Amino acid sequence: MMIGFGAGLSIPLLSYYMSVKFAVESGPIGTLNAAVSFIAIPFYFFVPAIASRLGTLRAILIPQLASVPLMIMMTLCTDLTIASPFFIFRQIFMNMSTPLLTAFTMKMAEPEHRSTISAVTSVAWRVPNSAASQVGGVMMDKSLDSPLYATSMIYIVYITVFYRLFRFWPSKDGDATGATIGR
Question: How far apart are CA 58 and CA 15, in angstroms?
Fold first, then answer.
């Protein structure tokens, strides 16, 4: 719920944000979004190697944590060309561990409950995300950068809480997730 709310404050509004902040039309923003999709592909495949080296939990949270300063850097930019690398890598780092997070969640659930767990986690993300989009729009009307700062703060709280909750949680196949984290 926390990550859904934090994302909802700014992520659905990023195209609008860039259009207003950098005075650009939809073409360059669309190109930038397309670039993110293609550049991200190898990163999704790189995450399992990170997980085997650092442990599952770190492989989920380290890229997400790396995305936070990149989002803040976007607010300091005055030109789309300068902001683009921050945007691209923020998107990649925040989302590259999604498949690993899904696998982590499913590994914790009994097979007969996995579809329910998937539905609950989806709803728990979507409901606050939807509500936060309106809040983020109101915030953006008052201060353009404020939703990005709020998202960044919520992400830091989410990462801290997630780590503290799952650092010693054993997985279903006997791999002590917490044991691999301490390396």
Answer: 30
Helix, strand or coil, per DSSP, at residue 36? helix
Helix axes 56-76, 98-108, angle to 10 degrees: 140
Length of the chain: 183
- pTM for the whole thing? 0.88
Look up residue 163 and give its two tokens. 């780590």
Rounded to the nearest 10 degrees, what angle do helices 146-166 and 56-76 cross at? Answer: 170
* Cα 41–chain centre separation: 16
- Domain 2-181 annotated CATH 1.20.1250.20: yes
Domain spans of the chain, in order of start: 2-181
CB 145 within 8 A of CB 20: no
Residue burial 125-153, b: 16+ Cβ < 10 Å; e: rest:
beebbeebbeebeebbeeeebbbbbbbbe
Q: What is the pLDDT along the chain (183 residues), one digit of tens a residue?
A: 999 999 999 999 999 999 999 999 999 999 999 999 999 999 999 999 999 999 999 999 999 999 999 999 999 999 999 999 999 999 999 999 999 999 888 888 899 999 999 999 999 999 999 999 999 999 999 999 999 999 999 999 999 999 999 887 755 444 545 434 333
